[in-house]
Amino acid sequence: MFDGHIALYRSLPKRVKIIEVGPRDGLQSEAGNVPTTTKVDLVNRLARAGFANVESASFVSPKWVPQMADGLAVMRGIERIPGTIYSALTPNMRGYENAREANVDEIVIFSSASEAFAQRNVNGSIAESIERFVPVAKAAKDAGLRLRGGISCCFGCPYQGEVPLSAVQDVVARLADLGCDEIDLADTIGVGTAGQVAFVVENVARQFPLDRLAGHFHDTYGQGLSNILAAMQIGMHIFHSSVAGLGGCPYAKGATGNVATEDILYLMAGLGIETGIDLDAVVQAGDFISQALGKNNAARAGRALLARAH
Amino acid sequence: MFDGHIALYRSLPKRVKIIEVGPRDGLQSEAGNVPTTTKVDLVNRLARAGFANVESASFVSPKWVPQMADGLAVMRGIERIPGTIYSALTPNMRGYENAREANVDEIVIFSSASEAFAQRNVNGSIAESIERFVPVAKAAKDAGLRLRGGISCCFGCPYQGEVPLSAVQDVVARLADLGCDEIDLADTIGVGTAGQVAFVVENVARQFPLDRLAGHFHDTYGQGLSNILAAMQIGMHIFHSSVAGLGGCPYAKGATGNVATEDILYLMAGLGIETGIDLDAVVQAGDFISQALGKNNAARAGRALLARAH
User: Fold this and answer.
1) Would you say the ipTM is above 0.85?
2) Model confidence, pTM
3) Nearest residue, CB atoms, B199 vs list A2, A224, A256
């Protein structure tokens, strides 16, 4: 129906890459232990739906994040679809070695744009936390693996509130120096709004190519899709999302977490933007994991499409 | 934090009017009977929060919509805050007489842009349904009341699917002829996406002034806020929303309904757009009605702000 005659929409990206983070970022924030077989099933369903990149595991210490302790088993259990990138979080060299053993395609390192958040969550400054990633980044690049860098709290922090653009840009520069192929700006607590997102994305794009810059938005305040629209209008075309809106917000119990993949895919379909992903298959995967977790499906497009199908 | 340097955001409306439709459109779609005293309390809380317009009742036949049968009692029970417009739906002259008895400030008439929807929901064509409103509109104008016209299914229909722009424009012309002070384009089933919204709003604005054109979006597929952002970028600055996201979707059971007022207000605050409405008071009103109905609060900003307050 949309005939694209409005300049704003004619200039949107023709194709958007969606990185599915539900099996890692999403499940990590869900209460309760998820059986390894369920994780394997979920990753397989998502890879088959057409995602080019599925964040599948986290090789952090099981003392910190026990719900991700079965990363190796998950990676060994899944079907490896050729062309799909299976990525994993690796906080240190020990995690990197485990990720290598699990044969992941992409190593994900991470920092925060908020000094207060870094101090509370990694017991050190931003600079110290990035210093610890130097050997990981070098090893990954030497091994010819893809390297991705995630930056939390780019649009606000639960401890310090506002996060200046210069702090975001400083971390982007450090992660770029480590050789990151892709860097994502995360709104960890979902506080950002459209104008702010446009402002940050436009400015960061002056120092790091938009073609390798991703947006990772949370729907805590319902702003996920409008933030993605705002970022796309600047030219951003890589986004993270979570099937069934898996994940919560540890800083606001009962609040929504990651923006739902189904809602994004519905938007992209309406805008005529290619993703290469089968929305119906994602809706089914979202129904599967919501039922497995015994929780309400947080993807609104998912719920509506499931209701229509019945 | 947002410094407005991006042209797109500098040109957004400085002020947006939000019409709160929760007590009518929202509660009408909720299961179960809501006590009159609860409705009165809700309308009072919303008017005190600063809304210039609260859609408070519906004077339709109690045989059709029994949950709205206490419209007169609601209107008589509420505190009438000077300057606040209390509006009510009136399908015919009998409803109009009741609305007059209840001393409403604004009469709301309605039609559909979808012929299939009109046939199924009002047993007649669009033209016939609007013909029935001729005496209502005349009486309202003669009495010096405000007259508002709502058009359902402007972005898609549960029966016929696509709805052509020309059909929307035809109904806008008919309602304008009846003397409507304000006309709203409703996405009754929430299927519209941002580019389509921009396209429809831009075209309708060529025939009816944007200053009197409103957007009524549903969040069934999660598109509410991105659609509002798209409409604002065209210049639209009147929107309808429902506290706590009250309301559902009769065409997709279990799906989300009206876009939540709290989510919109959070967006406007982030964009620096004035609304004159106290977000905290709306969050409290949303908590009140969610608890009264025994249902989950569907406003994501509402849930997050309530969680943060605890």
Assistant:
1) yes
2) 0.96
3) A2
